Amino acid sequence: MFESADSSAPRSLQPLLHDVVICVDAPAFAASPRDGQLRGAHVQGFYDHDRRLLHTLCLLLDDREPEPIGVQPLGPHQARFTAVHRDPRDRTDDPTVIVERVRTAGEGETISLRNVGTTERRLRVELAAATDLADIADVKRGRRRPPVLCAPAGDGTGLRWRSASGRAEIRATASAVGAAVAGGPEGGTLTWSPVVLGPGESWRLTVTVTGRAVRGPTGQPVRPREPAPWSEPVVDTDDPRLRDLVRRGLRDLGALRLADPLGGAGAAEDQFIAAGCPWYLTLFGRDSIWSARMLLPLGTDLARGTLWALARRQGTVHDVFREEAPGRILHELRPAEARHGHGLVLPSHYYGSVDATPLFVTLLVEAWHWGLPDAEVDALLPYAERAMDWVLERTAEDPDGLLRYTPRPGGLRHQSWKDSEDAVRDAEGRRIEPPLALCEVQGYAYEAAIGLAALLGHRNRSDAAQRLLNWATALKKRFADLFWLPSPHGPADRYVAIAVGSGPTPVSGPASNMGQLLSTGILDEDGGRDVAAWLAAPELNSGWGLRSRSATVPGFNPLSYHGGSVWTHDTAIAVSGLCAAGRPDEARTLLDGLLDAGTHFGYRMPELYGGDARSDGSPAPLAYPAACRPQGWSAASGVAVLAALLGLRPDAARRTLTVRPATRQPLVVRGLVLDGQPLTVEVMETAGCRISELPSGWRYETL
Questions:
Q1: pLDDT tens digits for 263-292?
Q2: Which of 125, 130, 200, 656 is deepest in the core (most CB within 10 A)?
Q3: Residue by residue, what is the 3-state secondary structure of 659-683?
Q4: Rounded CA gap, 309 and 304, in Å?
Q5: How far apart are CA 577 and CA 435, in angstroms?
Q6: Which of 138-147, 196-205, 368-377, 475-484 has the lowest mean pLDDT?
């Protein structure tokens, strides 16, 4: 999701996030340094619908900033910042005034002053506020906008900003009376003087931040009215890391939920997971699909909402600027056209991804297997067939019969999950340009075709099913012929190329992409064994998770976006694939590193983190400094690896749940959902398993 394009102009610097405190309640969030002060720098501010409402909210006591002593998260949407205010005239070194700021995304904050000393304190309290009404794309590219003129609110209780067009209006309203209010071109101030606090007394101020900002076209995602469409499972395990990863991830996912306002009146709310905060707090086809896939063991409602949100926006016409085509699934949705700098301009509805479309098909198929009601499956099936038609048409037009992307000038250069401008390099470190057929995308297409064929066959459409099976068989053969490269010095004699270019020429150099093939079915048993060997080897396994690029080839950079860093979701998908392929030892090796990394991040897993090798000299992994956190598919990865360890694979056609445990430790999970009914799975120390509360008509089998 790193967006850039060619330009000779100097590059502005993206704000770093590694030490930023983020409170999120989608579509709103607040970001600040650890002292809680908003000073108008970098990403700091209150936001809603991709628009910065305030970038400055700075507290002064007696013309000095309070001295910060700690920050405490109170949930994904809220944080408490604690500081002290000391007076040189005090006859003690102890602080006598404690300052607490509780910040809540989408609302504002409460500021409390408490006199813990033995004498009266008379304070001058000043709160400075300002905004630039910047779009999140401007903030991400490091561009500063001029401040907006500030004026006192008409009722004298706060400040007001209004854009030149009049289409955006922001208010900061204070609850404490008696403030002197002043506005100007650089911002405004609220001043209370004196605030008199006797020993043990407190003073409280609530600042409410509201905005009527430009929302763009109708249909922009909104805050959900209904609770999360899942319940937190009870995980009984001797490994608290796994339990904590699942618990923290689900809480962050709750804050990343959005709802589609285009859903039918009276129908269940269509919720989905935003890609990540702060840069991608919106509907992202690929990311939202993966998050919903990972949470299928907790029910199908999130998948249903995600599918409908994307189905309503499925491509219907050919549009070069939007890269829209009939059947193609949306890549991202924004309130307005976004200018990312260096020539990259993306429309509000942008379709520039090659992988979201086959992934949409697979999400419907897997939701069917997990128990999505037949009426929903049948209603969504035409959208899946149109999506599959887009895949078939693209491969029919390709000289090698592969699913390849060719971006428009000024659009995203790379159109799969590794989409930074240098995402694809060969073994010599050279950047490889599109058009490209990425290996995992061929796996997605194969999996979609096989799955949709099974669904159509179950709907008594055998001819359509057989055509898809024939196409998938041919793709699997082309893949075997074109993507394997020899490796005389690696952990296996061969590896899967990250991509095939024109010619067709495979792109050399081992990368993590091959790990996403294991669960797609496009590899035979020998291919799965060779890929598993690579994923467990130190070239790709950093000890903290799976590197995106081998550490042994030129161009490896442990803190690059896609050239050597570790992506949480990528590691989780590889773990799931290894478990599905019957490679539990390699899966546990990768998973142990991921869980250990979680302990250093408080289990709020970043989008990606450093790919340095784990050793005595690297006691902790480093977050990629501009990574989203929380991030959707990273937060969902805990449930994904939990399901992988249980080895759950439902088959709706046979009404059979296959269980293939990949853990050697006792593990009991209560609160899973199959076919709308609660399910308990117990893996025993003897490697056996027991299923409780299986839905009526279902049976289970173990492998």
A1: 876 778 999 999 999 999 999 999 999 999
A2: 130
A3: ECCCCCCCEEEEEEEECCEEEEEEE
A4: 9
A5: 27
A6: 138-147
Is residue 670 a contact partner of residue 284, using CB atoms and an 8 Å limit? Answer: no
> How deeply is 312 buried, as exposed, middle or buried, from its count of CB atoms within 10 A (0-12, 13-18, 19+)?
middle
pLDDT digits (tens, 9 = 90+) for 233-265: 999 999 999 999 999 999 999 999 999 999 876
CA atoms lying within 13 Å on the CB side of residue 210: 9
Q: How far, in Å, CA of 158 to CA of 182, rounded?
A: 9
- Angle ∠(689,693,699) on CA atoms, nearest 5: 65
CB 40 within 8 A of CB 130: yes
Q: H/E element holding 499?
A: strand 499-500
- Residue 182 CA neighbour count, 13 Å, CB half: 8
User: What are the tens digits of pLDDT across the range 347-356?
Assistant: 999 999 999 9
The pTM for the full model equals: 0.95
- Give which of 571, 582, 562, 513 is closest to 544, Cα–Cα: 571
Query: How far is it, in rounded angstroms, from Cα 516 to Cα 617?
Result: 30
Residues 6+ apart with CB under 8 A from 358: 387, 388, 391, 403, 441, 444, 445, 447, 448
- Dihedral of alpha carbons 328, 331, 332, 336, sign: negative
Rounded CA separation 192/188 (Å): 14
